[in-house]
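Handout, section 4.2: multi-component inputs.
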Amino acid sequence: MNVSNSTATRKSKFAFRQDSVGYNPDRHHNSDVKIASLTYNEDESEAYRAHDASTHYKYRGTYWNEGKREIMIRYIQLALIGLIQGSVAYFCNVACHYFVERKFERVASILESGSYFFAFLSYFGHQLTFAAFASLAVMIEPMSGGSGIPEVKCFLNGIDLPRINDIKTGLCKVIGVVGSVSAGLPVGKEGPMVHSGAVVAASVTRSSVRDDKARRDFVACGAASGVCTAFSAPIGGMLFAFEEGASYWSQSVTFRTFFCSACSIATLYTWNSVGSSFGALGFDKLFSFGNFIFEGMQASYSVWELLIFVFIGCMGGMIGAIFNNTNEKLTHWRIKHVNHSKFRRYLEVLCISSIVSIVCFGIPFIFHECIQVPDTDGMSQQQVELINRFVQFGCPEGQYHPTASLFFTDGNDAIKLLFHMHEHTFPEKALLLFFVCYISLATVTYGIAVPSGLFVPSLLSGAAFGRLFGNLIYKIIPDKVAFSNTYSLIGAAAVLGGMARMTISLTVILLEATGNEQFVLPLMISLFCARVVGSLFNTDLYHIHIHLKPGVHFLDGELRAISGHHDLYAGHIMSKDLVFIRPIEKVATVYDLLATCDHAFFPVVDTEDRDILYGTVSRHILTTLLQQRAIGVAANPSASPNRNIVQNHVTLEPNCNYVPLVPYKILEREYPAYTPISEIAVSDNDRECFIDIRPYCNTAPHTVQETTSVRRAYETFRTLGLRMLLVVNKYNQCVGTITRDDLTAEALAQDMITKGKNL
Amino acid sequence: MNVSNSTATRKSKFAFRQDSVGYNPDRHHNSDVKIASLTYNEDESEAYRAHDASTHYKYRGTYWNEGKREIMIRYIQLALIGLIQGSVAYFCNVACHYFVERKFERVASILESGSYFFAFLSYFGHQLTFAAFASLAVMIEPMSGGSGIPEVKCFLNGIDLPRINDIKTGLCKVIGVVGSVSAGLPVGKEGPMVHSGAVVAASVTRSSVRDDKARRDFVACGAASGVCTAFSAPIGGMLFAFEEGASYWSQSVTFRTFFCSACSIATLYTWNSVGSSFGALGFDKLFSFGNFIFEGMQASYSVWELLIFVFIGCMGGMIGAIFNNTNEKLTHWRIKHVNHSKFRRYLEVLCISSIVSIVCFGIPFIFHECIQVPDTDGMSQQQVELINRFVQFGCPEGQYHPTASLFFTDGNDAIKLLFHMHEHTFPEKALLLFFVCYISLATVTYGIAVPSGLFVPSLLSGAAFGRLFGNLIYKIIPDKVAFSNTYSLIGAAAVLGGMARMTISLTVILLEATGNEQFVLPLMISLFCARVVGSLFNTDLYHIHIHLKPGVHFLDGELRAISGHHDLYAGHIMSKDLVFIRPIEKVATVYDLLATCDHAFFPVVDTEDRDILYGTVSRHILTTLLQQRAIGVAANPSASPNRNIVQNHVTLEPNCNYVPLVPYKILEREYPAYTPISEIAVSDNDRECFIDIRPYCNTAPHTVQETTSVRRAYETFRTLGLRMLLVVNKYNQCVGTITRDDLTAEALAQDMITKGKNL
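Output:
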C-alpha cells in the first residue's frame, strides 16, 4: 500500500519517510508481542486549552469552583479506595484464617485418633482441593497469576499491560489467593493485596479519570493502600509505592497516598475491632507479625552486635541472590515447557501442591521429636497465647513437636513463633531442616499458575535462618548476645531484602508489622548489606520477572553507567523511520496512515515552512476527527497556516470551508478504549477532503537536540513520563523519535556497537 | 557602555538585545539583594564530554575502574558525614544537658535554703549569660541565627544563599544552640542540627565535589542525617529530606541517604552506649522522647477515639495557623525596627531572655501548689525514673510542684513527663497556664538572634494542650478513653503539624522518637487534619520565613492553580531582554559583556546561520577562557562553523589560528568560587583577537517552545533543576529566557495582569 504524499513539495533533504509506514516498529526485539505505553504528560493543544479554560471560567467567582469540586471528588474517591481495599484485605484474611483453621482442626482430630495415614490423606486432599481451586482462578484470568507486584510496577512505569486493572483480574486474584494460602503452598497474600489495591483504585476512578497521569496517581495510591492493609503498615505502604513503584513522585501524590493509606488502615482496624467491646483494639490486632515487646536488656541488642547483623545481612543477600537465580532458571524452563499449555500449567500446580503436602507432613513424621512446653512464668501475654499455636503432631499433652510447629501450621503462626518465643524453643536441627526445605519449595512455587506473594515465604525462611544463627551465636557467647528471636527478625529482613532489594520501605514495613522501633538500626543495616551483596550477583526478583515478560520494556530509575559516558547521543539511538503528517492533511492520507501504522503519536511537520516541526498529534484524536467527520473542502487546498511569529493562537483562515472544531469533551469521551480505525468508514468522496489538525496539535511537544547525551534524553523521558520524545536538529526539524523501545539496556548496547555504521 | 555587536549581520527581526546589557535583571522585585541560583543539570559541552570520556577510558578494562572508585569515595564520604554529624549531635546533647543540670542544681540548692529572691537572681543571671553567649555566636555569623531549616530548604531548592554551608556558620550554629538551649529559651536544637548536618556534608565533600548537583545530593544526605541524630529517627530523617527538602529525588539519592542515616545513628548509639557495659544500650538512650511502653488496654485507644483525634488535629491546625500568623507579623515588625542594628538585635535577645526567666520563675511562684508524688507500685521502670524529674520548687520532700515541673525544668524533661506519666499528674490549671504562656513565649522567641529550633517548643506546648484535652475527656467519659498521656502525644503532633505542615515525616519522626508503632494511625489522622485546617489560613512557618528573606525566590512543589489554567504561555512570562554571544566572538565583546552583565549563562546565537540557537555557555567558562588566554587571531574572522547536519562534533577548521582547547579540568578547577572578571586584565591588543566558544558550549540546552504552557515550563524548570530555561520559537531562534525570578507567584500574577500589553 502506498500512501505517499504526492501533493507535498518535498524540499527536505532529511530522511522523512511518510511513504514507508509499513516498517517494523520493533527494531530491537523480534518478539511478536506489542505492549503499548501510557502517556504521563498533559495535552497542550488549543482544543484542550479551550476546554480547560471553559471549565475554569464556568465556575469562576463562585465559592464552589471547579478546583474545589475536583479536590473534593478526588478525596472522596481516595477514601472509597481505602474503604474498599481495607474491607477486601480483612475478608481475605478472615477467609484464609477460616479455611486453614478448619483444615488443621480436621487433620489434628484424625491424628489424635492415632492414624497417621488417614491424617495424611485428609491433609493431602484438603491441600490439593484448595490448590486446584486457586489455579482455576488463574485459568479464568491468566493476569491474576503470580504476585502482581511486577505488573503494578510496570503500570506505574508507563507500560500498558492488557487487563491488568480489570475488575475480573482483581476478583480472580483475591479469590485465588485465598485458595493458594489455604492450600498451604509457600505463598503469602501480600503481593496479591498490592495488585488488589491497584485494581480497586482503577475501578473506583474508572468513570471520572480522563487521562493516564491521573489514573497512574490513583493506582499508586491503591498499591500503597494494598501494602498498607497487607501488613497493617500505612507508612511502609507509602514508601513501597515510592521506592518500588513510581517513576515520578510529587508532594501532592505523597499527600494523597497518605490520606488513602490512613483510610484503608482505619477501615482495617475498624473491622478488626468487631467483637471487641465498644471498638477497642488489642495489640494482637495491630501488628501483623505480633508485637516485639520491650523487655529487659537481653531482648535488645548491644552496639557491637551490629557487626553480626552486617554478616547476617550479607548472608541474606547471598541467599536471596541464589533464590533469584534459581527461580529465574526455573521460570525460563517453565516458559519453554509448561506455560504454553493451560493443561500443563494446571497439572504443575497439582504436582507442586502434592510435593508440598508430602514434605510438610513427611518431615515431621520422619523426624519425630517431642519437647516439653515451656513454663508460662515470666512470659508476656502474647507468648502465653502463642503457646497454643504449638503443634502436637502425635506428641502427648503438655509437649509439642518443634518441626511440625514450623512445617505443619499456618505460615503466619510459624513466623510469630519464630519471632516471639525465646531461646531453646526450636532446636537447631528443626530450624535447619525447615529453612532448607521451605526455601526450596518457595523457589519452585513462585511462578506456578496461582496467585502467590513472595513476602511471607521469604520472611519465614529468613526467620528460621536468623534464629538458627542466633542459636549458634548463643552457644558461643552465652549471656552476652540478644535472644535468638531478635536474630530471627534480622534474618527475616536479610533474606527478604536479598530477594526484593528494597531498603527503606522494608525497614518500615517490618517495624510497623512488629510494633517496636528499637530495631530500626539493625534492620537498616541488614537490609543495606543484603541489597549490596545481592546486587553483586543479580537484580531483584520483580525485575527478573518483568524482564521475562515478552515485549515489556521497563525503564529503571537510572541509566546504567556503561551507556552514560557520553559515547552516545540522542541522534545515535533514535528511530530514524519517521512517520509524519502535515498540519492540513488529506483525509485519504490520514486514513491510510492510521490503517497501516500503529504509532500512537505522529509528529506534525510543516512542509510548507522549511520542514520545521509543528507539533504532535495522537492517534486517537485523528481517529475521532475522522469519526466525527471534522473534514471539509479547502477554499485553497495549498493554503498554509498563517505564519505569525508568536504562534499562540492558530487561527483558521476566514475563507476556508473546514468544519468547526470538535470540542475536547468529545475527543476524550472514549478514553481509555478508542474506536479502532478499522471500524470507521470513509467514503471515496470524503477521501478527497482535507482535515485541519492544527487546533488539536500539541504545539509544544517535548523535544531534544540530536546532540543531547543519552543520559539526558533518558532522564527527560523518564522523569516527565513521556511516550515519545522527538529528536530535532538545530533548525527544529524533526529527524527522529525516541520511544521506550529505544531506551532499554539491550537497545542501547546494540546502538553502541553499531554507532559508527548508523551515521 | 556600549558593547554592541557591529560586525554581526543583524538579519533577525526579533528583539535580540546584545546592546542593552545594563538593564535591570530583577524586573519583578525592587529589592537590592541579588541571590544567585544553583545549576542542577549536567554540562554537555565537547570539553566536558572529552574530559568524561578520557577519565572513563583511562581505567577501562581494569577491575578498579573510575566508576567503582567514585562509588567507593562517595560512600566513604557519606560514612564520614554520618560519623561527624553523629558526634556533633552527641556532644551538643551532652553540653546542653550538662549546663542545664548545673543551672538547676545551683538554683535548687539556693531554693532549698528558702530564699526565693536569691534563687531567682541566680536563675536569672544564668539564663541571661547563656542567652548573651548564644547571641554572640549569631553576631559573629548572622547566617547561624534561627532554625536553619528554611536555609537548607532554600539550598536544596537551588538558591545559593551566601555562606550557608561554611564551617564558620556551622560552628557558630552548634555553639550558639548550646547557649540558647542552656539559657532556657523556648527553643529546640533540632532545626540547628539539620543545618549542622548540611554544613558537615558540604565541608566533608568540599574538595571532591565539582558541581552543584553532587553538592546538593550530599547536602540532602547531611540534612537527613541531622534530623536523624536530632531525634534518633533515621527513617524520619530521610523522609524529612524527601518531604521538605528536595525538589528532585532519585532512587540512588534515597539509597545514599539511607546509608548516611544508618552511619549517623550508629555513631550516636555508640556514643550513647559509652559507660554501659560492653556496648549495651538501654531503651532510655534509644528514644529521644522516652519510650511509649505497651501496657494494658487503656494505654491504647479505641477505634471510635479516632474521631476525637480528628478534632484535636483540627484544633492543632488552628493553633499552628495562629502561631504562624502572629510570628509573621512579629517578624515584619522585627525587620522594620530591630534587624537593621546589631545592637538592637542583641538587646532584644537579652530582653526576651529576661521575660522568659521572669515568667518561668514567677508563675510557679505565684501559683504555688504541692502534690503528693504518686506511688511507684505498678509503674514501669521509665516512670519510676521520671519521678526524679519532678521539680519540688519549695515543696516538702515527697511532694512535687506541678506548674514548676513544666516551667522550671528542661524542655525535654517536661515533654517526657507529659508523654509518660499517667493521669492526675498535672492538674488542668497547670496545663492551661503552661500551654498559654509557653506558646506565647515561643511565638515571640522564634526569630530573635539566637540559633533556635521550633520542634521542641511546638511539641511541648502541644503536649500540654493534648493532655489538657485528655484530662477533660476523661472527666466526661471516665474508664472508656485512653490515658491522657496518649492524648498528649496526639496533641503534640497536632500543634507541630499545624506549624510545620509536614505529614509523613513527622509521623515517622514521632514514632521513632517514642518507640511505639501502635500510634501510627492516630498520628497520621491528627497530622492530616492539622495540615488541612492550617492550610486554610496560611502556609507553614518555614515558607513564611523563606518568603520574608529578601531576593529569595523559592519554587514550590507545584504551581498554584490560578496560573495553571493555560492562560499563560512561556512566551508571556519570559524575560525578553536577551543578552547573547556568538560562537566565535571578539575578546572585546566578551570582556565588556562579562563586565557589565551579571548573568550566569549566556545563549550562544549563530548570527551567520538564520540566527538559530547554537547553545549556551556559562559565565565562569568565559572568564576562565579569558584568564587562560584561549584566544587567537582568526585566519578568516568571519568564518562560520562547518554546518553539517548532525552536529555531533564541532570541528575546528584547519586554517585558523585559534589556540588549542582548554581542558575541562582547568575549567572546573576554581569551583565553586571563580575569579571575578574585574580581576582579569585584557590588553588592548588582545581585545582585537577572537575567542572560540564552540567547544565549551552546551549544544543541547533545555529549551521550551514559546507556546508551551506555564505549567509545563514550571515543571520542566523545577524537575530538572535548571538555572535558566531558554524559550525558542518554532525556528529554534531564542526569543527569551525563563529564570527563577520569572516563575515566582508574584511574577506570574503580574504577567497575568499585563499579558495583553506585553504582546
